[in-house]
Amino acid sequence: MLRYVELYFKLVGAGIRAQLQYRFAFVMRIVGMITAYSGTAITMWVMLYQFQELGSWNFYEMLFLFAIAILSWGFCIILFFHFRSLDTYILNGTFDRFLVRPINPFFHFMAMKFDVAAFGQFIFSIFIFIWVSIELGIDWSFGKFLFLLASIVGGVLIQGGLLVIISALAFWTTKSEQFYWVVMYPARNLTNYPLVIYPKFVQWFTAFVIPFGFVNYFPAAVILGKETPFFPENIGYLAPIVGIVFFVIAYYIWMLGLSRYKSTGS
Amino acid sequence: MFNYRVYWTFTKKSFLRSSVYRFDVWSRLGSNIIFLLMWGSIWTALYAGREEAGGVGFEAMLTYIVVSQFLTGVNGAGTPLWEIQEKVRTGDIALELMRPFDIPLRYLFADIGSVAFYIVTALLPLYTVLFIFMDLALPTDWLTWLYFVVASIIGFMIRYCIEMSFGLLTFFLVETGGIEDIFYFAMSLLSGSVIPLWFFPDWLATIALYLPFQGIYYIPNAIFIGEIAGAEILVSIGIQLFWVAVTYMTLRLIWNRASRKVVVQGG
């Protein structure tokens, strides 16, 4: 286990050094990320300019909801985002190199890439957290802060788990990138807004099938003291557990897919 | 001399090519439906049971969003921005420079083919069903439908010219991060695709009215639900035509500069 931690940092360190060779590209990507997220935040502001509330959530509460999603997505990009392009590795035959080395292939594939551009997500979401905390006067007790961290970890595992499942589809269908754009990209957009506004079956689906509700909606409701109609009160406390369970399931699906994998055989 | 038959071939070919990539069509339709669900839910929640807001009825607003999502599907079915950027970065576009046709027009005609395929096989069936089964405020006279179609086509042209211009900027910049995000932001907010301009703060609405993006979604959508009516329709279409001319000339200018740059570098 310890060997794996050491190995992860070694592999990742090499990746970071490689990316920092292109300083300008690095900075521009961060600027791009922040611009894109600010765009969504401005859209929310314009939307609520006349209406004040969306399903009883005001602008600052929605920003908070958005920031939780962005922060955990930032970690997710670092750790798992490259899983979506597993199909390219399989089709090119370059996936085989992950199999011939004496370490767990899942781990090896995970440590292959470490995307430092996620700094954009961190800068944006931390700025929003501070701003919203001041505007809404959230009093950050130690327990609350700890819960926020725990639910971020849960959110990373849920979104990472879905990325892992999507990549595993490539073992059966030789497609994965497209599934990301069809399933996950829209799902992420959907959860930028409070789930309460969606039809019941969508809410139910995002709570119990693909548990994206636990990434930001349920935890944010706990921290901000908002109601979550149709769901038990304080269901958000389950977020870290849901994350762990979902990720373990995802891991086994991936390993199952791997056992079925046959090389392109060129 | 403009040779229609050359470009028409591109349209036919890309229509046929789309028919091979069925999965692409279905996946695009899938995410279109999810975004429709998202914006439909958002506007239902914003109205929160009210019959009307800001002088616009709920049914009309819902129609606005459905039509807007239809047009988003139409505008998203062509060559995407990143693909143009990729072609410039990898140098693939240089190969096309050697061939005897005009590249901005060649992509436009190819886009028309893939868009036509997507409309016929995916968008029209889905949105016909939606128009029939949802409570929407459809135009009652055929002339409004006609104006809507005309405005949508001009909007498509404006979007094409702007997107292609942004794509060609890759010739001059090493890194385009930030620039494309500004493009996507303007495309979604300032065009009125998700929030109609009448709900904007006044100052922002004024800015949006002086920019070309409103011609892509806001004008056709508003014509469809009758918010732009009577003589205003012709004025709006006039504004759109003005923007097509401006954006097309901008595209030509950028293209001329860009293609000369290729020649210089290619030595």
TrEMBL record, chain B:
<feature type="transmembrane region" description="Helical">
    <location>
        <begin position="107"/>
        <end position="133"/>
    </location>
</feature>
<keyword id="KW-0812">Transmembrane</keyword>
<feature type="transmembrane region" description="Helical">
    <location>
        <begin position="221"/>
        <end position="251"/>
    </location>
</feature>
<feature type="transmembrane region" description="Helical">
    <location>
        <begin position="29"/>
        <end position="48"/>
    </location>
</feature>
<dbReference type="InterPro" id="IPR010390">
    <property type="entry name" value="ABC-2_transporter-like"/>
</dbReference>
<keyword id="KW-0472">Membrane</keyword>
<feature type="transmembrane region" description="Helical">
    <location>
        <begin position="145"/>
        <end position="162"/>
    </location>
</feature>
<protein>
    <submittedName>
        <fullName>ABC-2 type transport system permease protein</fullName>
    </submittedName>
</protein>
<feature type="transmembrane region" description="Helical">
    <location>
        <begin position="182"/>
        <end position="201"/>
    </location>
</feature>
<dbReference type="Pfam" id="PF06182">
    <property type="entry name" value="ABC2_membrane_6"/>
</dbReference>
<keyword id="KW-1133">Transmembrane helix</keyword>
